[in-house]
Structures are given as structure tokens and as C-alpha cells.
Design goal:
By secondary structure, the chain is of the alpha/beta class. The protein is built from 12 helices and 12 strands. The strands form 3 sheets. The protein has a 7-stranded parallel beta sheet with strand order 3-2-1-4-5-6-10, sandwiched between helices.
């Protein structure tokens, strides 16, 4: 079985490729990535040598219909797993057109090419941010209304709806996952956890938006990858599956935990002007995927966060190329 993984040089995509090749022999993976700012070829270094013909890389923009048509003509793919996305909220506020191009146009091109070439399944990797912001109580379910707050989350919501429309209109086997905040190895340094870790390691200020009390639900990327496989293989076509570890934490608490682990002073924290449209709280109800597919997270943040921090400490060569 061969998978077309788009955005496979990004954080979650590269971890997924490593996960699928290590745990599911003899899966074959074709990785497509445009290698924009967050797509780092170093994230998949060594895979071709280790796995031979089971892994190949194709440098392309998913919004290029001719290239996607050529690629899907080359192989008979079992599924497309679409990680490819512009994903940073701040960048979407400054340059929303880039997000529309990749997240909406790119998804539409992939959906049409997959339909044309008989790809059995199309998996759209989405985000809990499409639901907007929660108050102090409650959880996002798959039936929560879509109320995106940023150009990024609006573009992801649009892509989700487009994918579901292809299922309803053409009968394409679409499945969607909406996951909470991920952390782990190979995450681009502008994201919260690596940004704070790398700034602390260099004794630089740690910028915290607003009052720092915004809440996020955190999940280790390996647990997310296991959930994706569960949905890919056994999820019901036309369905959405929320993925979360039930690990809520205020941003300020997270930053302080990083400083404590590294033995750095809290005086490095610097409160900065809040992000425009900053959602207050995200929290995922993952009952559906747990009960229907038997998935559950295995990594607890109490242990996995220190492991993640230690990975960045041990891999300076990887991140020093990406930061100033």
C-alpha cells in the first residue's frame, strides 16, 4: 500500500512518515512538499537511505494541478494524507493570501486529482482552531459549530468543508481529523514550545501574549500520528474525528515549566501585546475516536514535555540553521 503524504517535511508530516515507516512494513510513502519556510528537508534526512524504495520525495506545490496529476498518474495510491498547510496564525494575519493558496486551493487540487485517479481515501489533517474559542467550561465536539477567528483557521475550515463536499457530491472517501496543539521533535522554532525552549537556552526574552492565561490542549505528536493511522485505516468515510489528550495548560504555566526544567529565571518572561483575535481556550472531546476506533494517547505531558525540551538541547545543529 502506498500513501501520498503532502507537507511531509513539516513538523507533524515528517513525524507521521517516520511513524508509518517504522511501524507498518511494507508501507510505501511518497512525500510531497513545497519546502516553504516551515518545510525542512532535514526533517526527513536519512529516510531514503534507511527505507530505500519504500520512501521517495517529490518537490512540488500541491496547488500545481499539472504536477499533482502527474504524480497520481505515476503511482496507484491507497490514500492521500494532506498535512500540507500554512499554519502559523501570526503569518496568516500579515499575509492571508498565502494561506488561501495552500490551504484551500491546494486542497481542492488534491481532492480533484485523487478523484480523477481513483485514490481510495482522502485524509484531511485539520485543527481544533476551526471551532474558534471556548469559554472557561466545555469541550469541542465534532458537532461544534465552525467559528474560525483567524485567516489561518478560516482557511482550514474552508478546506474541511470542501473535502466533505467532495464526499457528498462525488462519493470520495474523505475522513478528517481535528487535533489539538502538538508538541515534540522537529517543530518549527516559531511555534510556542520550541520558541520558548530555544530562547531560554540562549538567555533571550520569552515573549508571552497578553496575560498568558490563554489555554491550549496539548498532545504529543506521536500520539497524534497513531490517531491518524487509526482514522486512515478504520475511520468512517464522511466523518470528522477530534483528537486530543485532555492535557489543558495555560500558556504561562507552560512557559514556566520550560524555564523550571532548564533552570532559567522567570525574569526572562516578557509580556507582549496580545495577538489579534487571540482565542482564549481550546479543549477537545475525543470520545468519538476513543470509543469507535480504540485510540488513546500514551504520552503524558509531565514526562513528554521534558523529553521534548531535551531533544532541542541535544539537536542544536538542527535548529541553529533555522533561527537567528
Amino acid at each position: 500500500m502506498r500513501l501520498l503524504v503532502t507537507g511531509g517535511c513539516g513538523f507533524i508530516g515528517s513525524n507521521f512518515i517516520r511513524y508509518i515507516l517504522e511501524h507498518y512494513d511494507p508501507e510505501f510513502v511518497t512525500n510531497v512538499d513545497a519546502l516553504t519556510y516551515a518545510g525542512n528537508i532535514a526533517n526527513v534526512e536519512g529516510l531514503a537511505a534507511k527505507y530505500g524504495e519504500r520512501y521517495e520525495f517529490f518537490h512540488a506545490d500541491i496547488a500545481n494541478a499539472d504536477l499533482m496529476d502527474e504524480l497520481m498518474r505515476k503511482h496507484q495510491f491507497f490514500a492521500v494524507v494532506n498535512f500540507a498547510a500554512e499554519s502559523h496564525v501570526d503569518r496568516s494575519i500579515n499575509s492571508p493570501q498565502n494561506f488561501i493558496h495552500t490551504n484551500i486551493v491546494g486542497t481542492s487540487v488534491l481532492l480533484e486529482a485523487a478523484r480523477k485517479h481513483g485514490v481510495r481515501r482522502f485524509m484531511q489533517i485539520s485543527t481544533d482552531e476551526v471551532y474558534g474559542s471556548l469559554g472557561a467550561e466545555g469541550l469541542f465536539t465534532e458537532h461544534s459549530p465552525l467559528q474560525p477567528s483567524s485567516p489561518y483557521s478560516a482557511s482550514k475550515a474552508g478546506a474541511d468543508l470542501l473535502a466533505l463536499a467532495f464526499h457528498k457530491t462525488y462519493g470520495e472517501e474523505v475522513v478528517i481529523t481535528r487535533c489539538s496543539n502538538n508538541y515534540g521533535a522537529y517543530q518549527f522554532p516559531e511555534k510556542l514550545i520550541p520558541l520558548m525552549v530555544l530562547n531560554a537556552l540562549r538567555d533571550r526574552k520569552l515573549p508571552v501574549y497578553g496575560d498568558g492565561l490563554n489555554v491550549r490542549d496539548w498532545i504529543h505528536v506521536d500520539d497524534h500520528c497513531a490517531a491518524i493511522v487509526a482514522v486512515l485505516l478504520n475511520g468512517k468515510a464522511g466523518e470528522v474525528y477530534n483528537v486530543g489528550a485532555g492535557s489543558e495548560m495555560k500558556n504561562l504555566e507552560l512557559v514556566e515549566a520550560i524555564l523550571n526544567h532548564l533552570g532559567k529565571p522567570k525574569e526572562l518572561i516578557e509580556y507582549v501585546t496580545d495577538r489579534l483575535g487571540h482565542d482564549r481556550r481550546y479543549a477537545i472531546d475525543s470520545t468519538k475516536i476513543r470509543t469507535e476506533l480504540g485510540w488513546k494517547p500514551l504520552k503524558r505531558m509531565e514526562a513528554a514535555l521534558p523529553e521534548t525540551i531535551e531533544w532541542y538541547k541535544a539537536n542544536r545543529e538542527w535548529w541553529e540553521k533555522l533561527v537567528q
